[in-house]
Amino acid sequence: MSDTKVKPKAAESQPPQPRELLKLDCDRQLMVARFSSCGRMLIAGGYDASIRRWDLGGEKPVEVDRVAGHRGWVSWLEVQPAGELVFSVDTWGRLQATRGIAGKPELAWHHDEAHDGWIRSLSVSDDGQVVVTAGRDGAVRVWSAADGKLLHEVKDHPGEVYAVAIHPDKTNLVTGDLFGVLRRFELPGGKQVGESIVEKMHYYERIQDVGGLRLLRFHDKGRTLICAGGEPLKTGRAISIPTIHWLDWPDLKIKHTARLGAQNHGFVFDLAWHPDGFWAVVTSGQPGSGQFLLLKPGQEKPFFNSTKMSNCHSLAVHGDGRIVVTASNRNSQGNGAVRDKMGKYVANYSPLHLFSAPGAEEKPKAG
Amino acid sequence: MSHCRSWEHDWSRRRMLGVLAAGSVGAGGVGAAGLGGLLQPAMADELARNDKQILLIWLDGGMSQLESWDPKPNTPFGGPFRSIPTTLPGIHVSELMPKLARQMKRLAVVRSMKTEDANHSSGVPKIMRGHPRNRGVPYPFFGSAVAKLMGPTASGLPPYVWVKPGNGGFISKHAGFLGARYGALALGDGKPPPNLVRPDSISSDADRVRQELRKKFNRQFADRRQGAFNEANSYVYDVAQILMKHVELFDEKQLKETDRQRYGTHDLGRHMLLARRLIEAGVRFVQVTSYGWDTHGDNFNSHASRMPKVDQSVSALIEDLFDRGLDERVLVVVMAEFGRTPRINGSVGRDHWPNAWSVAMTGCGIRTGTVVGETLPDGTDVKTTPYDIGHMFHTWFSAVGLDSAKAQYTNGTQPLPIAHDDMHKVDELLS
Across the A/B interface, how many CB contacts are shorter than 8 Å? Predict the structure, then answer.
C-alpha cells in the first residue's frame, strides 16, 4: 500500500453569496415587487388591491402612501424601462399606468375592463413603448404604453393564458397557456406562426388541470426565450418540481433545463437577470419550502440557495445589485382558527427581505 | 342485527325481488332513461307519485365556500375572484359559477353551516352520518340510511349506488350497524361491475343452470356463517342479477351528444349524466363523488379549473330535473365535509374550515330561491343561527317524507334516532 500522502486540495473558492440586510414588514400578502426605475422606491402589489411603496432614500426604508385604483388582487406590475410609468394589473381585469411612482403618484391611464377577470401576465417591451397583457379570458392584448390605446388583440386561446412576453424587436409575442402550450404570434396582426408543447408543464387529474407554464421572458437580445414554472405532479396542492427551460428563439426548441428542487418546492414564481451575470429565482410550493436561488447560465445547480423564507413569491433586482424577495410569514399554514391575543382571526402577511448584491461587502462602495 | 319498524319501508327484500321479476318482463323494451318499460303500470305510477329519491353530489376534500356559494370579494380573505349577481335579487355567487348563478331560483343555499371536525378522516364519516350523538355504534352513511329507511324504489334497482372515480365494488362499511347489505354499490368511473353482461358463449339455459348452482353453493356457504353476512353476500349477487337487466344504463352510445356536451366530457360531467339516468331509472339514492378538493396549495388556480366543471354539470342536472318534473320527487344536495379557511396560506392555498361553510340543495319540497344564514363580512364565522349537519339530516329526511323526530333504527334491542336528537329540521328550507 502506498504511503504517499494525498495533498489536500485547495479549498474551492466560494462563489459570492448575498446576505440579508433587512426585513420589511407588510401587513398583507404580496404577489409581486419591483424597484422603481430611479431605484429610490420599492413597490409591490398584492391581495389588498393597492400598490404599496417603500421609500429607500433615507436611513431606513419607510412605507409611504399606497396607490389606489385597483379592485382585485394586484397580480402583476412592471416598471417602464427608461420611463416614468408603472404598469399594474389585477384579478378583476383592470390595467392601469401610474406616473410619478417615486414621488406623488398619479394615474396616467387605465382600463377597468382590459380583460374579463384575472389578468395573469403583464409584459413591457424593452423600449418601454408597448405593454402586453394576458388573462383567464383567453385573450392577449397589446397596448400603447404612452396612452393606453389598444394596438392589437389575439383572442380565443383554447385555455387560460398564464404567461406572455413580447420580443425585444416587437415583431412577435409569445404566450403560454394552462395546458403548457407555447404559441408565437406575429405583430402587427396577431397571426399565429408557431406552436410548441412544453412537456410536463401541464398535469391533469380529478377534473383539474394544473398549469405549470407560468412565466415567459426574453433574454439575450431576444435570442433566448425563458419558460419557467414547474412540472406538476398532483392536484390540490402545490406538488411540482420548479423548472426553468431556456429555449432557442424562434424555433422554440429547449436548449437547457434546470429543475430546482424536489416536488415539494412547487413552482418558480419569479426570476430576474442579475447584472453580475446570473439568474435570481424564487420558488414556492408546500408549506415552508420556499427557495431563493442564484443560478449561473448553463448550470443546473444553483450556487446559492436560501431556504430560510417560508414561501417566496416574488423578487426584484435593484440597479445596484441588491435583491428583494417577498415571502410569506412562517406559521402561515394549518386548519386551526389562529387568533391573536385580542381574539381576532389572524391573516397572513408578506415580509420583504432585502439582500445585498452577492459579494457586495468585498466590493468598494460606490460613492 | 337491526330491524325495520312498522313506520319504515314496506319494501321487503321479497317484494324487491318480486318487483325484479316484474321489471324483467318489461326490460326488453325499456329505453335508457324511461321508467315505464321497467315496471307494471301501477307500480310506475306509484313511483312517479310518491317515491322520493336523493342525489348527493360530494366534493371530497372540501370545496371553498368563498370561491362558490358565499363569495366575499374585496375583503381581506376574499381571494382574487369577483362575485356575480344571480337570478335571486341581491344574492351573488362566485364568478366561477355563471350557470349556477342562473339556476339560483331553483336552489336553496345554507351559508351558515358550522360543524365540528376539521379532519378528513373523522370529518367525512361525521358529515356522512349526520353527526349523530355518540351511542357507541357506527351510524350508517346517508346513502345506507336511506337504503334502509326507504328501501329500493318500485324499480327494484339497488337502493344505494355510488358513482365515483377509481375502482368500484360493494362498499359495505358505509352501512355501519345496519349490516353490510345496506352498503353502497360503487360504480368505479361510472362503469358497471365487470362481466355484467352474459357472454354470448353462455346460453340463457346454461346461465340458469349456473345460477341454480350458485344458489346451492350459497346455501352451503350460508350454513356455516352468520345470517347477516350471508344476507349481504347473497344480496350482492342479487344486485348483479338486477343490473344485468339494466345494462342499457351503462351504454354510452345511447347518450345524446347534446347531453354529453351540456354535462361535460370530463369525469364529473360523465358521472353526473349517469347519475341522472340512474335516478330516472329508479335508484333510490345516488351519490356522485368528485375527489381532489383539498386545495391546501394553489387554491385559486385549482378552483379556477374545477369550479367550471361543477358549474356545468350541476346546472345541467338541475335543468333536466326541473324540465322533466323530477324536482318534485328528487332531492339534490351538493356538499363536502367542510369548507376552506378564509386565511390564505403561504402555498396560496386554503386549509380546512368547518367554522363557516355552505351547502346547496333543491327538489323534494325544498324551498327554492332561498339563502339561509349569513356569515360575517370577512367570512370568518357564522353571523346568524349556525346549522350543523344534523339539522340538515332532519331537513332532508323530512323532505323525503320521513319523520326524523319519531323514526328510529333498532340495533338489537337498542332504539336509535335516525338523526341527532338535539337537532331539528330547518323550517326555512322546507316549503
Answer: 133
